[in-house]
Amino acid sequence: MTEAPPLAEPHPQPHPLDPPARRPSDGTRQPSPATIATIAGEVGVSITTVSKVLNGRSDVAPQTRARVEASLDRHQYRRRARRPPIRHDQIDLVFHELDSLWAMEIIRAVETVASVAGIGLHLSQLGGRHTPPDEWLDATLARRPLGVLFVLCHLSERQRELLARQLIPYVMIDTDSATSASVPTVGSNNWNGGLIATRHLLQLGHRRIAIISGPPDVLCAQARTAGFRSAHDEAGLPIAADLVRQGDFYVAAGYSHGMALLDRPDRPTAIFAGSDTQALGVLRAARQLGLDVPGDLSVIGYDNVPVAAWTVPALTTVNQPLRDMASTAAQMLLDLARGAELSTSRIDLVTELVIRESTAPPRSIPPRSI
Length: 370
Description:
Helix content is 37%, strand content 14%. It has helices at 36-43, 47-54, 62-74, 101-117, 134-143, 157-165, 190-204, 219-235, 251-262, 276-288, 322-337, and strands spanning 90-95, 120-125, 147-151, 170-173, 185-188, 209-213, 244-246, 270-272, 298-303, 316-319, 346-349, 352-354. Strand 8, helix 10 and strand 9 form a beta-alpha-beta unit.
């Protein structure tokens, strides 16, 4: 009796996330790149666990995730590109916090770009945090937007890797920290803004100038303070340490620091508020203390939000082109989502001084040029 030949072992079927096999130009088949099964076998976990890591799921132990990601990197694993993932026709706009006038300017500009492109806009905030929590990342990966715009917040290295693996581009607006050259970023020249605001006050004759900046860990606030110091340095004038205050860019901080600075015998004759909303708080403090603006106190804001032209007196401020920043970033994001390469990854727009009614020479000191 003739023995039947052994059955051929079936070829393993590729996982939907596996990259396609490659064929060289001579027609011979090259070894396939690593599959999810390869990664799972090497690490000693299930295929489901590897898929969870690839999809950015948070229900994987940190040590296991690290081992899987190390194997993915070692094998240079990339998701297959033959069938692009289905995505919603929308972009995500993420703020560290939404309660501000400048946020509304950014929202309006991004919405305009999105509307012209025929796509939707999903808005979220991080409750004051500058780095998104894992729950936010899980929800975003499940939603699969065309891309994400981050405003005054940043991603951890792991979060950047997960978005890259899911082919979700992102762009930073008015970043709160230094970004690498590989991170697309749109901002403005905050150092120059601080410089020109302070120069204006010095040229009017002010010598006791206070600054109420933003949070000390936010890069744009640091840059504005650096410009404030540089203007004093070039004028050869010292800065009293107690005239440099750290706020949070909101009205309450402007009011509380304004009260503390102005309710003293050696009060400053001018305050650079660091944001228009903080300037509103300073104006209220001055009014409560019976001080005339600009007769007793000059005030400069930052951002040039629309309400700045309607305060009493109308607010001198630094124009930060918020709408241009936002629309530029939104267009960059759409270009990335279409697969285009950016000509540059960092754009800083120009800041300009807008002189209105809230600044004037101090009454006790005659004006002189610096």
